[in-house]
Amino acid sequence: EFNGFGELEINGWVAHPNAGTSDADPYARARAARTGRIALGSAEGLVFVARTDDANREILATCTYAIVGKTPAARAWTLRASDDQYLTIGSPTGGAFGLHSGNVLRDQSGAFKITFSATPSSGNWLQSAGVGNRYLIITLYDTSVASTTGISDYTMPSIDRVRCND
To answer: Which residues are 46's β-sheet partners?
Structure first.
């Protein structure tokens, strides 16, 4: 799906920093009008979407993934999973709808490992449900990522497929 020009890609995670600003291109504005989704302004934050894992394979609801690493500096961040319509994957069995920077366990270096799967996992777990493609969405709040020129200095978490249940 085309989200407009001005794409920012970091390790497979894609954002559109101008989408919520007066500099948004006409395509991004039309998409917002059509879908009703309002983008964050540049001072509010930046939304990154991953549609594939690190091997460039679609992220599937029936597979288990390890999301490992750190996010760029931000006051706070959230991680959620969505379907291909960007609707958040919910859990009738009590799994988390999403995780955030305040409730994720980290190692001594500040890195985290999150398991994204249909079955519960110890540690940080984000539940997948159903079938089909999934998108992982990290929202960085109050971050300088889009306003600096040192983009190459930033990294996003890796997404590694561990196994598939199909």
So the answer is: 140
Cβ distance 45 to 38 under 8 Å? Answer: no
**Three-state DSSP state, 32:** helix
If one counts every other C-beta atom within 10 angstroms of the C-beta of residue 108, the result is 5
93 is written with which tokens?
Answer: 């069995």
Q: Which residue has the tokens 């040192």?
A: 150
Which residues have a Cβ under 8 Å from the Cβ of 45 and sit 6 or more positions away? Answer: 74, 139, 140, 141, 142, 143
DSSP string of 73-115, one letter each residue: S-SEEEEEEE-TT-PBPP-TTS--SEEETTS----TTS-EEEE
pLDDT tens column, 37-74: 555 555 577 889 999 999 999 999 999 999 999 998 88
Nearest in space to 88 (alpha carbons), one of 73, 77, 78: 78
User: Residue 73 corresponds to which tokens in the numbers above?
Assistant: 């500096």
User: H or E segment at 64?
Assistant: strand 63-69
Question: Can you read off the two tokens belonging to residue 5?
Answer: 């020009």
Contact of 56 with 117, CB cutoff 8 Å? no
Residues 6+ apart with CB under 8 A from 107: 113
Task: Quickly count: other Cβ atoms within 10 Å of residue 72's Cβ.
Answer: 20
Q: What is the pTM of this model?
A: 0.81
